[in-house]
Amino acid sequence: MPERKPPGMPSGHWVDEQIRRATERGEFDNLPGAGKPLANHDPHDEDWWVRQKVAEEDIPSDVFLPPSLLLRKEVAALPDTVRDLADEAAVRAAVREVNQRIAEHIRLPKGPPIPVGPADVEAVVAQWRAARAAESGDGGLGARATSPGEGSTSGLAERGRSHPGQANEAQQVAQPQPQPRRRRWFRRR
């Protein structure tokens, strides 16, 4: 036990002297957390110890998310997940497996009610094809050969030149349809 502060000596000087003596004796050597900043604990945060334990144990933060948010994150990361798969059947199987888990979650939800929709298989396959085409450098021609007019309005217009009856179809597809006017929830007086 350290001696008492001598009368007449200022407290600050006495404390500094005690710290200096302890440092000379080596009492502050090899302490845990030496050289690290002190944790800034919020006095109103009741879960500070949980955050500290998670940081110490290197636990990923996804473990604490509700299942619906985990599924949403998985759907968002699906293009990156399927990028390394070898063929289209494997991509479709991976998307189908995620969609089965989403359907299971919709039937028996766990956690907060956060809406999760199924992944669009065709969109994921199209992204996979585009990524494969970009890797191979063929500009998408090797991934899928499209026939003229498939998936574009310019092809309809080209076909419309040869058949006059289809020209109107191409113009209708190219022009956006006007939206019906929204009804107000209140009445004007």
UniProtKB/TrEMBL annotation:
InterPro entries: DnaJ_homolog_subfam-C_membr-28. Residues 180-189 have a biased composition (Basic residues). Residues 166-176 have a biased composition (Low complexity). Residues 14-83 form the DnaJ homologue subfamily C member 28 conserved domain. Residues 14-28 have a biased composition (Basic and acidic residues). Residues 1-44, 131-189 are annotated as: Disordered. This is Uncharacterized protein DUF1992. It comes from Bogoriella caseilytica.
